Amino acid sequence: MGDRIKLKARIDNIFGICCYHLFPLKPEYYIGKGRTIAICTLSSLDLLKEIKNNQEIMDKIFIVGRLLSENKGIDEIIKFTTNNKSLRYLLLCGEEVKGHLSGQTLIALQKNGIDHDKKVINAIAPYPFLACSYDEIEYFRHHINIIYKTGLKDIDRIKDIVFDIQVSFY
Fold first, then answer.
1. Is residue 29 within 8 Å of residue 63, measured between CB atoms?
2. Residue 129: inside a domain, yes or no?
């Protein structure tokens, strides 16, 4: 079974490299003035830009970005949180990534963790294997509070949630 997983990982990596060169997507994130709240807009690029242009929200959050993959993207979020210990909340909003289900994978990671192959338990994504260390993953799971609002794209409601989090944190 392990050899099949390794072969699939190699094939997926090759496809990932091809996609990167054929359809390059630059990482998009924006740093705000806050230090405790992050926002992930999943695949909703318009929402990401709307939040970036909303100074009231950007003054309260640490970072806003999107999450397109159920593996490398989640690894990047985990690394960011372990390198920025003041971060406590992640607001997950916007539309789910079709085919990759990165939001569902992130939720499954928070609730269930990983197995001995670093596969996210109960994730339904095609390749939910992480590269981060076990300690980094556990730090993320136990120190980051995810606010599950997948599908939410209303900027006023997002602003209300951010302000509610900030008030409750202090």
1. yes
2. yes
Distance separating alpha carbons of residues 69 and 10, to the nearest angstrom = 16
Question: 3-state class of 101 per DSSP?
Answer: coil
Q: How confident is the model at residue 28, as a pLDDT?
A: 84
123 in Cβ contact with 108 (< 8 Å): yes
Number of domains the chain contains:
1
Scanning 64-154, the segments in alpha helix (DSSP H) are 72-83, 102-112, 134-143
How far apart, in Å, are the Cα atoms of 19 and each of 16, 25, 107, 126? 5, 9, 26, 16
Close Cβ partners of 128 (under 8 Å, ≥ 6 residues apart): 70, 71, 105, 108, 109, 119, 120
Q: What is the mean pLDDT of each run of 10 residues along the chain (170 residues)?
A: 61 52 62 97 96 98 95 95 97 93 96 97 95 97 96 97 79
CA distance 120 to 137: 10
CA distances from 3 to 116, 132, 160 (A): 14, 20, 48
Write the CATH number for 138: 3.40.50
3-state secondary structure of 29: strand
